[in-house]
Amino acid sequence: MPDLDPSFCQHLQAITKVKLSDDQVCEECIKQGTEWFHLRTCQTCGVTLCCDQSDEQHMTKHYHAQHHPVIASAQPGERWLWCYPDEQFAEY
């Protein structure tokens, strides 16, 4: 991670290695037979789920249920993190 301002989100600063998806699927959409738009990977538990542009919004539901604060884009070529509670974004 880049050196960030000390006032920057502590959740994002705590990420030392970004977890990425191996199989590029939303695990919950597969179970439900629904489709996803983009994928995000939880940086606490490593689950990969669909984004808010997807009908089911599984990653946001995961955040509200589990309170895991940081996700990473699982889209090829995208290198960013988002912190839900602090609503802060960081590229890596």
From TrEMBL:
Residues covered by the UBP-type domain: 7-92
Classification via InterPro entries: Znf_C2H2_type, Znf_RING/FYVE/PHD, Znf_UBP
Domain of life: Bacteria
Name of the protein: UBP-type zinc finger domain-containing protein
